[in-house]
Specification:
Layout: H1 4-16, H2 22-29, E1 30-31, E2 34-35, H3 44-63, H4 69-88, H5 91-107, H6 114-134, H7 141-156, H8 174-182, H9 186-195, H10 217-231, H11 238-255
Antiparallel strand pairs: 1-2
Helix pairs in contact: 3-4, 3-5, 5-10, 6-10, 8-9, 10-11
Length: 257
């Protein structure tokens, strides 16, 4: 907290919001007594998510295009982004990257229907939380705290919700914020995100023009988005809007074909 950058960020945030909670900034800058790298971004989370998203696009250029000399350059760029993910100490970024790779190769051979996708959206977080509860004793404070936050949601959930902004800085999950602030209306927000799936024919025969070798890597980044919502509050972040913009562009391409 003696870093010049930390003091500058704290002053800026407190000038915009006198009630800003300092511990939120401390977690963005430090973790386990070690400095979290954030590059040109305000927080390590923003830096890590950007690097993960960029890594997916660079990997797409490597595996979905003909190998040539430029591939070496792209591999080096990918290496730099992976290092950036590592030094940001945001574990979710590696989850985003490797799950996207896995799903891309699965979707190359199997088309997922909407019913299975909806089951994935709702059962995926439940599966993650169940594993977390079972192995809770092995989790660090950050991971274990996320389990307790869902317990808080169950104990304090109300049908109409507490209202937007009622729990600023208290949770790490987009799902928790949506349902504890909006109540049952949180389902409509989630429904809007799910509905985009109808515009994505994710399969070997339904690839984007930039997925030249029929590996739907870019589209799979959208599918990976939902487990992330279970453990990270990404609303208003660059990652959140990038996903929405990506899906909009994908749907526009298919609409014009």
């Amino acid at each position: 907290t003696n870093l010049w950058r930390y003091k500058l960020l704290l002053e800026a945030k407190q000038s915009n919001n006198a009630d800003y909670i300092e511990r939120l900034l401390q977690y963005q800058v430090m973790r386990g007594g070690e400095l979290r790298s954030s590059g040109f971004f305000v927080s390590a989370l923003a830096s890590g998510f950007f690097s993960a998203f960029a890594s997916i696009f660079v990997t797409n250029r490597i595996i979905n295009y003909k190998l040539d000399f430029s591939t070496v350059i792209y591999v080096f760029i990918l290496f730099l982004f992976l290092v950036s993910m590592y030094v940001s100490q945001v574990r979710t970024t590696f989850f985003i990257y490797f799950l996207t790779l896995l799903l891309a190769y699965i979707f190359r051979y199997y088309r997922v229907n909407k019913a299975l996708f909806v089951a994935y959206v709702f059962l995926g977080p439940i599966f993650i939380l169940t594993i977390g509860v079972i192995f809770r004793g092995l989790l660090d404070a950050s991971s274990a705290g996320r389990i307790l936050q869902y317990q808080n949601l169950l104990e304090n959930f109300s049908v109409l919700g507490a209202g937007l902004g009622a729990h600023v800085g208290e949770f790490d999950s987009f799902y928790i914020y949506s349902f504890i602030d909006l109540g049952i209306f949180g389902i409509f927000l989630l429904w809007l995100l799910i509905k985009y799936f109808e515009f994505l024919p994710i399969s070997k025969s339904g690839c984007l023009s930039i997925e030249a070798k029929n590996i739907p890597l870019i589209q799979s980044a959208y599918i990976t988005f939902f487990p992330v919502l279970a453990v990270q509050h990404v609303a208003s972040s660059l990652y959140y809007f990038s996903i929405i913009m990506l899906v909009s562009l994908i749907s526009k391409e298919y609409k014009n074909t």
